[in-house]
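Section handout 9: paired folding examples.
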Amino acid sequence: MSSRQSNRLATTANRDRLVDTLRPAVEGAGLDLEDVEVTPAGRRRLVRVVVDKDGGVTLDDIADTTRLVSQRLDEDEDVMGETSYTLEVTSPGTDRPLTAERHWRRNLGRLVKVTPHDGDPVTGRIVEAGDASARLDVDGTPQDVAYADVRKARIEVEFNRKEA
């Protein structure tokens, strides 16, 4: 195994441990832990914790979660080791891929571009989101999309959306 592969495995293991450490604190605050990224930033590391919830995340949610996550990291010194870090708690951006049912549900009414494993991409508005599939309005025609058939799905940003 090369040192690069070894470093990647160690990084994945560290990230998994970090997720396991932070998930209870984030979920205890009523939020979903969407992602954790650790990236080098000079002599420090940037720890980015992405959280979300139904109805969206408020600034108060971010502030409260930042305190909880910081406290949890301080309690478990082994997770981050000796290296200094900067903590950033944030909500997902519009460019986040839709990978879970809750992502589809939270984006009802939004325009989405779906690239299936087989076939051509389709763009439509999410009108329903169930446990295993979503229904899109594609130019006035309903189209069901099974999550298992989706290779990639992203929200399309609309600057001048006209309400129906």
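Moving on to protein 2 of 2.
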Amino acid sequence: MRPVNLIPAEERRGSQAPMRTGPLPYLLVGVLVAVLVGVTALVLTGNQIADSKDELVQLQREDAAAKARAERLVAFTQFETLYEQRLATIASLADSRFDWERVMRELSLVLPDDAWLVSLNATASPEASGGEGEGGSSLRGSVAGPALEISGCAAGQEAVAGFVTALKDIDGVTRVGVESSELPAQAIASSAGEGEAAGGGGNSDCKTRDFIAQFSLVVAFDAAPVPVAAAASGVPVATETAESSSTEGEEGAESEGG
């Protein structure tokens, strides 16, 4: 037989007694749990913020230290840049050096006996030349590299042509331009009609004989490199002037024409 509890429900005690407090305890426990979760989340968030602030301070310190090291190394960076610039300049100058001493030595060897020089101007660029006036030549402007501007006298036009051919034997010469080559009668007629020819300021030195020609030449070295700085500054690399007396010219002319 199954036992049956005949005691009214409101009078029962123990585990069989029904709940009389209602849902309030459960609501209180839920609120406490929610508060605990919120406090825990707040504490964790605060700890994360504090850690982030500490990390930010550490990064700022490292950044300041890196900037300080960079500022100390600025001088070395500037020195490295200056070193590279000067090295490039030296390399450019070394590559563009022109051996004027060799050219003058070879010129002295190829100069024929029936021609003599009145003036010689050696420049590295057209800007370094004296222009189209005295000691200058209009042909010089067409030569971008080093060139010789030669004025002199020769025993006739054939001697001038022979001198032009001899100049081409100089190592490095690419072309020889003839600015003018005139006999005394031609020079007088040209001066009367158009004024004194450019580069012909030495015509009076060649009027010793009718067959003596006054010439003006430009010897170009187009293959030789030219430094940009030298061309921009307009400073001649080398300039030499050779003067010969009219007595030597007369002796050379007499020996050729006699």
